[in-house]
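Students often ask why inverse folding is considered easier than folding. One informal answer: many sequences map to the same fold, so there is more than one right answer. In these notes we will look at a single instance of the problem. The structure comes first.
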């Protein structure tokens, strides 16, 4: 039997990023199922903030890729 996953939304990912230390905790990546990247963001403070800034522009594309799987 195939597993079905709930469709992810960019608004929720942005909300998680903004409400958890401005994205440096990596919660938006845990939400998208990217556990490794979530821990990387958590341990490096969002790649010293650079990764968090990149996320501001790339979350919609990341969500589309996650939902395609």
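Output (designed amino acids):
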């Amino acid at each position: 039997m195939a597993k079905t996953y709930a469709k992810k939304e960019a608004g929720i990912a942005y909300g998680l990023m903004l409400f958890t230390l401005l994205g440096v905790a990596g919660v938006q990546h845990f939400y998208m199922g990217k556990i490794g990247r979530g821990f990387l963001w958590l341990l490096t403070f969002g790649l010293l903030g650079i990764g968090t800034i990149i996320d501001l522009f790339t979350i919609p594309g990341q969500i589309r890729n996650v939902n395609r799987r």
